[in-house]
């Protein structure tokens, strides 16, 4: 049936309507377009990296909100200009205002005006002097200061001097950071804030003002700057003054990038920096929550953390990962924009071709597919944003955990090294005694004993290397350089390898360019460096090979070069990149060892301001080169002249300075066994070491033992021994606490105390001597050296008794007041006796009761200090006083006798004559008879 014109027009109309309907139905986004917002941002300055990072974070977050117009006004550190710019924002009609104030007071009124007009205000970073704002986003500057103070307290172990470089005066971050630092330092009585430098957040002001302050305060240990730019200036000043190795610098910001605080920490320019997030993303998120009426918090405090050598690599990796993910997001956003553009063009075509039902359906299908892709991309972006936020929150947790785990690992190494010294004592002590006692062994047994000693000494060296690793890691390995001849020093070390090289068939060559090359160096440090290099070269050099050591001075470069060259198998290319890493062992089947020698040598060389390099060709050998400066900073120099190293581990451990006896009679008495009457108290919690000490000392002394510090204190007070040998690390009461308590108690203050410990660091030895110990020996120790040291201390004690007896002169019975505990005891004892001279019934029990101790304790104390009994002492005081009274002619001899507590004049006369070989009457006649 043919169509009429009217029916055709009706069909076309319906097609057009359906096309328009499908076109509108396929674009639901335009049905409810998002509202457009205008955000104004008043920034105090964009002239530094931290503010630029803040702005970059804002723009990154704004990329998720295409319906927002963002306007920025830069005040360029001018508070008046910032006031005017905020007024301009109010006139322009913005929907929300973000303010980062240059100074709090000047901008507060205009911010309050914006708030009162109903415009939401977000305060970013620096607070204003008012609470009339909608939300605050920023770090807690008070907590920043407190975290810096706590970190510095931990870094300096609670003792040291701090210099503070403050930000712009009047700025709230500067005020809060100083207040937080002061509050934290108050918890460390040994920390002192000795100076403050006023900065302006910029590096030039620090470079100008800091040198004069450092010259006025050379005792500064740590500089805390309120941002990383000023911290960099402080480091440059310290380096210019030669203080960069002694003074540590701590900053604030922790920005990523080549010129950020994280890179400075990794490069060693800064010791640490405190993370202070710019907060740009958080500010925009808070602003959008406010504008879109979503829940938000008024106070949005950004977290902080300390970034130092323990977590800087983790932080850098995380920031690089975040940067990479942000680039992916930006690429996906560009793709999304392309999809949106495509969708818009398709939508236009759809409206134009809406008259054709088939074309409209095809375009609708394409639009639907584009919408699905759009939603899928949006979901992916949202998931990635959630992942980024989650990772950002986990960074701090991971960093703290890494720091704790690293510290636990280092503590484990240190404690484990200490624990190894105790069994080494029980191995090396008997072995040394058997080898040096003169006992005859057959060749096989002597060889086995020598093998045990060599391997025990090798284990001891490994333990010492672990200790050195810990000291270098925590900065506790000091350099004490003295002037010396490096050629003679290296030759001495090389000679110690002569026997091993001869047995292996290796030739040692020493080629110094000059016979004498003088320079300041630390014997202890370079001994370990060259010993490790030579041991390594000899280890990997085959039979009939050669090890060559050459020394050459380079005056033009102000350095000395020491080369150690071998003809071994060389180092593979795979191993060359890792040989200086701690605990790394090569891939070669014969590469057995601890993996510490070369890493320790590198660390010690750098500590000495030198360099350690190497060159190697597989199959042809290796050459290690140590380059040392001819001059060192004054801070690394020590008085004296360098001495040759002592390579015997036992002798080196045992030679601790001790006073040597010169009383030949006393030494002869102990040599013949007469000194066995001396009582020695051994206090050691390790049962085997306790038994070992008792076994070695029992042939020479009377021995009593205790297994902890508390029991040792109790036995010392009861027994009043002649000498005490104690461990340092013990449960309940440590050896140092035991020394302090015994030396502070006049009952036991006279007893010599020897401390035995695995803690062999110089500062630990100083701590033991300062506590009052008479001798400090490190494990493992030589039993013969210990025995001779005890004999020397007892000999010195005998001479001290003679000194006290001479102090009780024939002219007076009163000891002169003194600060020493033993002298104060004698003064108190003498005063009690003199106050009761007239009492005939005065007994030792009465005197002991007056002193608050037992009769036995008094007897042992007086016997130990004076070598006599309390009864003899009382009699001596009475007879000494009698000499004074006999010169008084108004008193008869009988009155003198009764006044001094003698029961009868005859007993007095007998005692007096027995003491002075003259009767009282003859004494009086001799001294008061007229001179003719």
UniProtKB/TrEMBL annotation:
SUPFAM superfamilies found in the cross-reference section: ATPase domain of HSP90 chaperone/DNA topoisomerase II/histidine kinase, CheY-like, Homeodomain-like, Homodimeric domain of signal transducing histidine kinase, Periplasmic binding protein-like I
Residues annotated as carrying 4-aspartylphosphate in the record are 727
Q: Where would you find the membrane-spanning parts of this chain?
A: 349-371
Q: Which residues form a coiled coil?
A: 315-342
Residue intervals of the Histidine kinase domain: 415-632
Keyword entries, A-Z: Coiled coil, Membrane, Phosphoprotein, Signal, Transcription, Transcription regulation, Transmembrane, Transmembrane helix
Q: What is its EC number?
A: 2.7.13.3
| Catalytic reaction list | ATP + protein L-histidine = ADP + protein N-phospho-L-histidine
Q: Where is the signal peptide?
A: 1-31
Q: Where is the Response regulatory domain?
A: 679-794
Annotated ranges, domain HTH araC/xylS-type: 827-926
Query: What is the name of this protein?
Result: histidine kinase
Origin organism is Hymenobacter segetis
Show the taxonomic lineage: Bacteria, Pseudomonadati, Bacteroidota, Cytophagia, Cytophagales
